[in-house]
UniProtKB/TrEMBL annotation:
Organism: Kitasatospora aburaviensis
Protein name (record): Helix-turn-helix domain-containing protein
A Pfam family the protein falls into: HTH_17
Helix-turn-helix domain residues: 10-55
Chain coiled-coil ranges: none
Amino acid sequence: MREVGSVPQYYSVEQVAELLGLHVRTVRGYIRDGRLRAARIGKQYRIARQDLEAFTGAPVAEPPAAEPRYAEVSAVVRIESIGRAEAGRVANTVLAAIAGPRDGGPPLRVEAVHEEDRETLRLVVLGGPADTAAVLALVDTLIKENRHG
């Protein structure tokens, strides 16, 4: 949380407890006793930066930034009635698409296995939700092109 211009910064009880190394119940007790000023918003308390600094007698350090969340999707696409040449074209197109530049995030992996005797192509896609969705959309387009083209 950062102060923007003259807009005061507010902390939750949990954030204050973490900043001060106290238990949440202790912070709530300070609020109930009137030792720490807080505004009640709904069922929660919010403590203004200046009130927290007045309580501690020192400037308040920023709370540590939260770790970014990581999400990974695994998807298996099974395409039936697909010959060797067409399976190769689909697999190569997908593999070429993921080899291009990306905006970072978790690595994107695709494995392609063609079962010639069953005329089935399996694509196993592992990566972040947005990248995986883009690969699935590409596969959908490639399949539709094959059906209609």
